Amino acid sequence: MNNFILYTLTIFLLLFSYYKNKKKTKMALVKAWKSFENILPEFLGVIMLVGVLLAILNPRVISSFIGNNSGWVGVVIAAIVGSITLIPGFVAFPTAAMILQNGAGIMQIAAFVSSLMMVGVVTLPIEIKYFNKKMAILRNVFGFIFTFIVALIIGKVLNQI
Amino acid sequence: MKQIIQRYRFFIGTTIIVGVITLINHDIGLKSFANAGNSIKEMILILPAVFILLGLLDVWVPREIMIKYMGEGSGIKGIVLSFLLGSAAAGPLYGAFPVAAVFMKKGVKFINVLIFIGAWSTTKIPMLLFEISALGSDFALTRLLINVPGIIIIAYIISLLTIQEEVGEIYKKAENL
């Protein structure tokens, strides 16, 4: 559905651009291809890494680490597991729900979901290429620390409801 | 040829590692390749559109307009716009980086670039619906309420810790990407 909107928009704009100015449109396509080709090696490498990680870390394995009684140790493990892996949201949330049903606590789930989205260790090579080492590491470290704040607040709020 | 191997050494390396894993443990190895295949499928589905949109943005939208709305002096307007653009996005976080590069090329303020990436990573609107249906609205909305200030605070801290010259270098690099 998302992709459908994305492509409808892209094709519409592309045709409009072509109608307005052929030369500029060609330039846009050349630029698009160049920047894609430029980052492709990093993308492919990261995709292989993510493939292995997802093969090893399935919901059953993860929930065995972060059960309801695992406390802060469980939160730390959840944050670390979430930081390494990179899963698209539409897989991540059902996975998180499954882990929750398998007995993980709400704080651990909050840490897992939050770090999953904000912190990406495997995508660091891409981030470094676009920014630099320092900034990429800073962003991920702060995202990691922030994960614990999120876990704490969600734990407090949801356990009171 | 040598240049291609040099550029793709990370990919070649990881592929060899997964190959070795497959020899040791068939199950995990084959699953890894299947996962990678799925990701590549996802990549092929989303990235061409993202990059074409970026190319069009680069060619058609003048620098002055981007600066006016999201550059130095854009204030709250720039912050809100960065948030909305990041939240409206589709696709995994690595899709945000090329967009950020074009933003920098067009003179978008560093803090706003950071806020955009933060928003793309966690407050995507389509994902919020997934989150509500999987984990409940209390969970999803609480997280959203913490994330909005969190993303802005993190962006400010990072930009405070980054000196002007470094920002300049990152922006210069973006010109060539």
From TrEMBL, chain A:
<feature type="transmembrane region" description="Helical">
    <location>
        <begin position="38"/>
        <end position="57"/>
    </location>
</feature>
<feature type="transmembrane region" description="Helical">
    <location>
        <begin position="136"/>
        <end position="158"/>
    </location>
</feature>
<feature type="transmembrane region" description="Helical">
    <location>
        <begin position="69"/>
        <end position="93"/>
    </location>
</feature>
<keyword id="KW-1133">Transmembrane helix</keyword>
<keyword id="KW-0812">Transmembrane</keyword>
<keyword id="KW-0472">Membrane</keyword>
<feature type="transmembrane region" description="Helical">
    <location>
        <begin position="105"/>
        <end position="124"/>
    </location>
</feature>
<protein>
    <submittedName>
        <fullName>Permease</fullName>
    </submittedName>
</protein>
Automatic annotation (TrEMBL), chain B:
<dbReference type="InterPro" id="IPR005524">
    <property type="entry name" value="DUF318"/>
</dbReference>
<feature type="transmembrane region" description="Helical">
    <location>
        <begin position="44"/>
        <end position="61"/>
    </location>
</feature>
<keyword id="KW-1003">Cell membrane</keyword>
<feature type="transmembrane region" description="Helical">
    <location>
        <begin position="110"/>
        <end position="132"/>
    </location>
</feature>
<dbReference type="Pfam" id="PF03773">
    <property type="entry name" value="ArsP_1"/>
</dbReference>
<feature type="transmembrane region" description="Helical">
    <location>
        <begin position="7"/>
        <end position="24"/>
    </location>
</feature>
<keyword id="KW-0812">Transmembrane</keyword>
<comment type="similarity">
    <text>Belongs to the UPF0718 family.</text>
</comment>
<feature type="transmembrane region" description="Helical">
    <location>
        <begin position="144"/>
        <end position="163"/>
    </location>
</feature>
<keyword id="KW-0472">Membrane</keyword>
<protein>
    <submittedName>
        <fullName>Permease</fullName>
    </submittedName>
</protein>
<feature type="transmembrane region" description="Helical">
    <location>
        <begin position="81"/>
        <end position="104"/>
    </location>
</feature>
<dbReference type="GO" id="GO:0005886">
    <property type="term" value="C:plasma membrane"/>
</dbReference>
<keyword id="KW-1133">Transmembrane helix</keyword>
